[in-house]
Amino acid sequence: MGNHGVRAAILAAALGCIACHGGSVREAGITSTQLAGDHCPGPSRLMPPAEFEVCATDLLERSHLDYGDVVAFTDVTYTTVLGFRPLKMTIYMPKRGTGPYPLVVFVHGGGWRLDPEGTEAASGIAAVLQLARRGYVVAVPAYRTSGEAKFPAQLLDVKAAIRYAKTHAATYHATAERVAVWGASAGGNIAALVATTCGVLQLEPAAMSPAMPGGPRIPYVDPATDSCVRTAVDWFGPIDFSTMDAEAETDGQVGKVHGLAGSPESQYLGCVVAECPAERVQAADPITYADSGSAPTLIMHGLADRRVPWQQSQQFYDALQAHGVESRLVLVPDADHEFGGLGAERHREQVDMVIEWIGSHIKS
């Protein structure tokens, strides 16, 4: 069986039950007139794109934070999923010029358990601002935590955020043609999945149902917009859950922690890693989907990481290289998880490396 056949078998076995992951398999498309603009005032919840453009008021009249040379638009609802809270993002935009700027979607970490809404530190605010000040629009979406929904909900949410950001790119002086994804830790896992699953139908967000009278407004997303990206950055993300404990033991760490019932990985999957059906674990592993169609990817990891073994990044790099995908692996000496122990200046150097990579792929 070829690589595509293996992937299909894994997905069919792991994701066969839509109810297991919140109705996430893409359903039949609906017309754009059934969807509403997120920022439109008034009682109507069924608004076509033309009306959305009319009601999109001055950006600075919207809820925002001012960082001097960067403005951050908060409380931007990018999707609604039946039975869950509205999912929001913050969009950081340079004040100088009018763009169009390249667009980067930054995926926060936190073991798939942390909701960063209202907590700037969890969203990597320093790195995000560093990127925005270099001429990028940066979207930072919240996504459902593992306490709310299991894999693939988190990936589907981030893909929905990418589609929303592309649809509304011009509103925020960005371009939908030059898009990157960058994730850290758990967000690195999701970013790597975005990079490797472009066009995998089972891992695309479901089409939204029409809004009900009196119900929440449904953000407009162009049905023709995809969730693919030109390039990706994976910072110390888990890539192959089945090998994490063995790799941790090789590094002299306390072994078997990732496979325990209470581990972030087990909670993400909805089953104990060591006891999960193999196909269910593999469905959440970016390495499963690595092929020649994967996006060019920068992979960075600290060699002293005590939370996610650095060998995870080596595995991902090797898999991408085996398929001829442009990729680069940077292993940082003396750096713990989140590049802890490096100090502010060396940490900025890691972000500069990311900006250089992203710029070489989407700046022009």
Summarize the structure.
The protein has 364 residues and is α/β, with parallel strands linked by helices. It has a single domain (3-362), classed as Rossmann fold (3-Layer(aba) Sandwich), CATH 3.40.50.1820. It has helices at residues 3-14, 49-55, 125-132, 153-167, 186-196, 244-250, 264-269, 278-283, 311-322, 343-362, and strands spanning 64-66, 70-79, 87-94, 101-107, 137-141, 174-184, 231-235, 297-302, 327-332.
CATH topology: Rossmann fold
How many H/I helical runs? Answer: 10
Radius of gyration: 20 Å
What fraction of residues sit in β-strands?
Answer: 15-25%
Q: Any low-confidence stretches, pLDDT <50, length ≥5?
A: 17-57, 118-123
Order of the strands making up the biggest sheet: 1-2-3-5-4-6-7-8-9
**Straight-line distance between termini:** 40 Å
Q: Compute the number of strand runs.
A: 9
Q: What is the string of helix and strand elements? A: HHEEEEHEHEHEHHHEHEH
Give the averaged pLDDT, no decimals.
83
Helix content class: 25-40%
Task: Look at the structure and name the CATH superfamily.
Answer: Alpha/Beta hydrolase fold, catalytic domain
Characterize the biggest β-sheet.
9 strands, mixed
Shape: globular
CATH architecture: 3-Layer(aba) Sandwich
State the secondary-structure class. Answer: alpha/beta
Total number of domains: 1
CATH class: Alpha Beta
